[in-house]
Design brief:
Strand content: 25-35%
Distance between the termini: 42 Å
Helix content: 25-40%
Order of helices and strands: HHHEEEHEHEEHHEHEEE
Number of strands: 10
Structural class: alpha+beta
Shape: elongated
Number of helices: 8
Strand order of the largest sheet: 4-5-6-9-8-7
Largest sheet: 6 strands, antiparallel
Radius of gyration: 22 Å
């Protein structure tokens, strides 16, 4: 069976070309380059800009606009002074599963790099989220997220010291925090509230993740509770928009 306009399911209608058929030159070049990528392997270098510009009959600057969009979409990535084919995006489930599980399920090697672990008095605005009183000690742990040693995100976790008193001595910051809570402290996750939005990274965040400041990021705010319904953690997770997509399962809500 042929799909309308020859496109695959999930692709832009009419391949993104308006009904009047007039499209910008950069977009025509982008479509042509995307077709080349379909048969290319991950890490394969793109032909020189000069050759691509001649092939698609556009100027070098017009070609670079097409390449910039493909980089932002995660189809290409910069390597040194060249451009190579990027691998598929990591499809992270929107669930209580940890980052470690989600990355490992896709055959990638998860990892983390500790940026900092600080202890400070809980400010009033954070107290209710952590089930703590203002002034109680809380931890803030910041880690760069890795997939096969590639920096793909940045995670900030806030948790009350009373819940995890030995976080600075008993926890390996390169490992899963959820696994530590469950296996070492017997704390299980019950439910969570999440909010997902798109943002641009701050200069500091872009430097830590190793991305240009103009790259769209996916930001998730999470408030988690344990199996007894008590507040547990507040997490701010920033993911590279060119390396991640998110999935979830929707079911029919129960009727009263």
């Amino acid at each position: 069976m042929e799909f309308p306009y020859g496109q695959e399911p999930g692709a832009p209608i009419r391949s993104g070309i308006p009904e009047h058929g007039r499209i910008p030159k950069y977009y025509a070049a982008k479509v042509g380059i995307a077709a080349l990528l379909a048969d290319a392997d991950e890490g394969e270098p793109l032909p020189p800009e000069r050759d691509l510009a001649q092939r698609f009959d556009v100027s070098r600057e017009t070609l670079r606009q097409a390449l910039r969009e493909l980089v932002l979409e995660g189809r290409l990535r910069r390597m040194g002074r060249g451009t190579v084919v990027a691998g598929p995006k990591l499809a992270q489930p929107l669930s209580l599963a940890s980052y470690t599980e989600g990355v490992r399920d896709q055959g990638r090697r998860p990892g983390r790099h500790l940026v900092g672990l600080d202890r400070f008095p809980c400010p009033p605005a954070l107290a209710a989220d952590l089930g703590a009183a203002a002034g109680d000690p809380v931890w803030h742990m910041e880690r760069v997220l890795l997939a096969d040693d590639e920096r793909v995100g940045l995670e900030s976790t806030y948790v009350a010291v009373a819940r995890v008193p030995d976080l600075d001595t008993a926890f390996d910051p390169d490992s899963s925090f959820y696994a530590y809570l469950h296996e070492r402290l017997g704390i299980g996750f019950g439910d969570a509230d999440e909010r997902l939005e798109t943002v641009l990274a701050t200069p500091r965040e872009a430097l830590l993740i190793g991305t240009p400041g103009a790259l769209p990021m996916l930001l998730i705010h999470r408030l988690s509770r344990d199996t007894r319904g008590r507040p547990l953690e507040r997490v701010r997770s920033l993911y590279r928009g060119d390396r991640f997509s998110f999935t979830t399962h929707l079911g029919t809500p129960a009727r009263p």
